[in-house]
Design brief:
Layout (H helix, E strand, L loop, with lengths): L28 H36 L20 H9 L8 H5 L4 H21 L10 H14 L1 H10 L8 H4 L8
Length: about 190
């Protein structure tokens, strides 16, 4: 049997030590700690869902946009996007069709350089064509023009060397300045 002085007062529950604000677990910290534990338990699930959604969306976009075709050397991949149809048709009518594909002129000839250029161009082309932010008619950007110029010079080295020597110390003449329709007959 309990004595009246040992009994808890009605509605107060077990007696505890008085709250001490200097002790964090006694000054409202249990609520914060509990909320923090819930968040840390939920974080892996949230991350899993976010990564899954990004992978799913990326995978869908890769399949829908025929992404695997861009990893190969098939010129028809460049015409996956309707805005490039004019360039693809021009290439099919050009003298270079028999000897060079898109990557031969528009990508560096090193493995790393080729795929870095393809990835960079792929991202920015996708962005431009999806957002509608591109000039019409499309024009080559300075970085891609440098790549194209270097590939002209690599394939036609003997001729280009003779032309450069003919002009002495003058700045290099751009191949595509005079031969802009060679790769894409317009």
């Amino acid at each position: 049997m309990t004595r009246p002085q040992d009994r808890e007062p009605e509605g107060e529950g077990p007696r505890s030590a008085p709250l001490d604000p200097a002790v964090p677990e006694r000054a409202g910290a249990p609520e914060r700690a509990s909320a923090g534990r819930r968040w840390t338990r939920a974080l892996p699930l949230v991350l899993f869902i976010a990564v899954g959604a990004a992978a799913g969306l990326g995978g869908y976009t890769f399949v829908y946009a025929k992404g695997a075709s861009y990893l190969q050397n098939d010129p028809s991949a460049c015409a996956n996007c309707h805005i490039m149809n004019e360039q693809f048709d021009g290439w099919q009518r050009s003298s270079h069709r028999a000897v060079a594909g898109c990557n031969d002129c528009h990508a560096p000839h090193t493995f790393l350089g080729k795929y870095v250029t393809k990835a960079t161009n792929g991202f920015w082309h996708s962005f431009a064509f999806t957002s509608g932010r591109f000039p019409d008619p499309i024009r080559i950007k300075p970085g891609n023009l440098r790549v194209t110029e270097e590939t002209c010079r690599a394939c036609h080295g003997d001729i280009v060397h003779a032309i450069d020597n003919e002009h002495g110390g003058a700045p290099r003449i751009s191949c595509v300045r005079c031969h802009q329709s060679v790769g894409h007959l317009h």
